[in-house]
Design goal:
This protein is an alpha/beta fold. The chain contains 13 helices and 10 strands. The chain has a single domain, classed as TIM Barrel (Alpha-Beta Barrel), CATH 3.20.20.70. The longest helix has 15 residues. It is globular and about 45 Å long. The termini are far apart.
């Protein structure tokens, strides 16, 4: 590969926690957001990624996102901060890049957000525009469940050759350990050794790390970091059995994700149950779980001692 990183590659390793961006009515709940960041600092996460999908970035305007970036960096102390910059217009992406730089972020997270389906070349040109506009390293955010764009391994390879692309966040999928080894090996062969691979989809975090992913970009870890840090450290130490056992213990939580259509509403319900955010903290038209579902989430949270 042609990359010669001008950044610390360890920034894109370990557990990166994606916090909620809680609202109070139509305004950012700054106190609740800062509280979430302070919890992550106390937990000792490896990095904090604000304005990921868990952070509802697509529902916020550029001014709101600039404020979130500022609050995150101010509250994170010595924990590295990455900021999500994806938007429909390249113009707005670049504005978000500028505000992340001004806030003092150490890296960027970029998803190819679209209304009209994007081609591979359009996605490549988006990433080239961003990497040419900034010295901050960029994480490629492959999240077909929200963007409806599917990256190919060939596109991973093209993007990894751009100066400034530092990590590729791949989606999780059910697979055997051998299947995981094959997939991570295929990606590694395509992108080389200078770009890290990060796993997402929390139920798949352990298997991704065991198979050789460098980072776990975690959604619910932005609310309850400790159990996911235990899994991460076990995998980093080569203790695959313990990492899998700890993951299995969280199966009731993973089941909630399946039942309620993903991690966002469940994470918000856990945060509300723990007193970290107020009710109706998600941006309309996205709504909280109903009261019966919230009670079920609370029961699981208590049974797993997630507090």
């Amino acid at each position: 590969m042609t990359n010669a990183p001008a950044y610390d590659p360890t920034l894109f390793t370990g557990l990166s926690a994606f916090p909620l961006t809680p609202l109070n009515g139509e305004s950012l709940d700054e106190d609740a957001f800062v509280g979430l960041i302070e919890r992550l600092v106390l937990a000792g996460v490896d990095s904090i990624t604000a304005l990921g999908s868990t952070g509802s970035y697509a529902y916020l305007n550029t001014d709101e996102r600039a404020r979130v970036a500022q609050l995150t960096v101010e509250s994170a102390l010595d924990i590295p901060v990455l900021i999500g910059v994806g938007a429909l217009r390249t113009r707005d992406v670049l504005a978000n890049v500028a505000s992340a730089e001004a806030a003092g972020a150490q890296g960027l997270l970029l998803a190819p957000v679209s209304y009209q389906p994007l081609t591979e070349n359009e996605v490549f040109e988006l990433f080239r525009a961003v990497t040419e506009s900034t010295d901050l390293p960029v994480v490629v955010y492959d999240n077909p469940g929200t963007t409806h764009f599917t990256f190919t391994t060939e596109l991973y390879s093209r993007l990894a050759a751009l100066d400034g692309v530092a990590s590729i966040k791949i989606p999780g999928a059910p697979a055997s350990p051998a299947g995981w080894d094959e997939r991570i090996g295929e990606i590694r062969a395509a992108i080389g050794s200078e770009v890290t691979i990060g796993i997402s989809g929390d139920v798949h975090g352990a298997e991704g790390l065991i198979a050789g992913c460098d980072a776990w970009y975690t959604a619910v870890g932005g609310t309850i970091a400790e159990p996911l840090l235990e899994i991460t450290r076990a995998a980093e130490l080569g203790n695959a059995q313990l990492a899998r056992e700890l993951t299995a213990e969280l199966q009731p939580l993973w089941d909630l994700f399946t039942e309620f259509g993903g991690s966002l509403r469940v994470s918000a319900a856990i945060a509300e149950h723990l007193g970290l955010v107020g009710p109706a903290c998600l941006p309309l038209p996205v709504r909280d779980l109903d009261e019966a579902a919230k009670r079920r989430v609370a029961e699981v949270a208590d049974s797993l001692d997630l507090a």
